[in-house]
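TICKET #2291
ISSUE: user wants both folds in one file
ATTACHMENT 1:
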Amino acid sequence: MQPDAAQQREQAHMLLDAVPDSKIPAVRNLLETIVSPLSRALANAPVDDEPICDEMASELAAARASLERGEGIPHEEILREFGLSAEDWEQMGRTPIETAPHSPER
């Protein structure tokens, strides 16, 4: 007879408690990819090994320097770029996301 979900969860917790500290990051990453489809997709995404051109490198350096000086873009400005208000943002935070059914793991 298969153990029920609560028993399996308890067994998983016991196994996690037995994992050496040095292996915790790897286990956490594995669990994250199981729990989060986005994390799984990102982990499996092809590596973009295209070299960064001089112009892009310069823009990245300027952006990093701007952030170090505390000159980030205000949240409200980003929302405006997407046609959203602070109230829209708050409402989105209170609205549950409906997830589409997915196929079982193979």
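ATTACHMENT 2:
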Amino acid sequence: MKFKTLMTIKAVICLGFGPVLLFFPAWILGLLGTAFSTGAALTAREYGATLVGNLLLTWLARNAEDSVARRAIIWDLFVYDAIALIATVVLLLTGVLNWLGWGIAAIYLFFAVGFGCFIRLGKKTA
């Protein structure tokens, strides 16, 4: 997969989830089987803001040529998605999220592997 394609897919996913978490946290948390509270709303909205930031980063940097900055972006997104994958799986295994959470885990796995492949390729990140 090309770098631009992976970045575009991530931007679209972030566009789908970021604004929903910002503006409708109770609805999305309810879908995931999680109790809604003031603390959950704060965390969901902050996570929504993170996704909007990722949306801007991935969309604006999708055409970046191979450079130190592009490799830093790849590392950042790899670490972000790998940590989010682990956190999501822990929440799933402890029963905090319902079965829909496995879809979220699959998305994080997809991106962690995708960005991990670019790290493994080194400078060949076309």
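RESOLUTION: both attachments delivered.
EXTRA DETAIL ON ATTACHMENT 2: The chain has a mean pLDDT of 94.
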